[in-house]
Amino acid sequence: MTKGTPSMGKRSGKKTHMRCRRCGKPAYHMSKKKCASCGYGETAKLRKYAWNKKNSA
Fold first, then answer.
1. Tell me, what's the pLDDT at 18?
2. What residue ranges define each of the domains in the chain, with the CATH number in brackets?
3. DSSP secondary structure code for residue 7 in this structure
4. Which residues contact residue 37 at a Cβ distance below 8 angstroms, ignoring those fewer than 6 apart?
5. pLDDT at residue 47, as a whole number
6. Which of 12, 25, 47, 50 supports an S-S bond with 37, CB 3.0-4.6 Å?
7. 41: region left, alpha or beta (phi > 0 left; psi from -120 to 50 alpha)
8. What string of pLDDT tens digits covers the 57 residues of the chain?
9. For residue 49, what are the contacts with CB-CB under 8 A and spacing of at least 6?
10. Residues ≥6 apart with Cβ < 8 Å to 47
């Protein structure tokens, strides 16, 4: 079995992320049931950090 480019095509085509209901970005993880961008599904507050200038507004 080879490791490189040929085996990359054999990886599953399952969708892991979909569009988030709250922020609209395609960052909602379907199996974890939470959004990586805004934190929907994990917390009622919006996910924001001081180091992330785009998300802090």
1. 96
2. 15-43 (2.20.25.30)
3. H
4. 20, 23, 25, 27, 47, 55
5. 93
6. 25
7. left
8. 678 888 888 887 889 999 999 999 999 999 999 999 999 999 999 999 888 876 555
9. 55, 56
10. 35, 37, 38, 39, 55
Give the type of residue at 25: K
User: How far apart are the C-alpha atoms of 19 and 43, rounded to whole Å?
Assistant: 17
Token couple for 28? 């909602």
Within 8 A by CB and 6+ apart from 42, the residues are 34, 35
Contact call for residues 27 and 16 (beta carbons, < 8 A): no
**What is the length of the chain?**
57
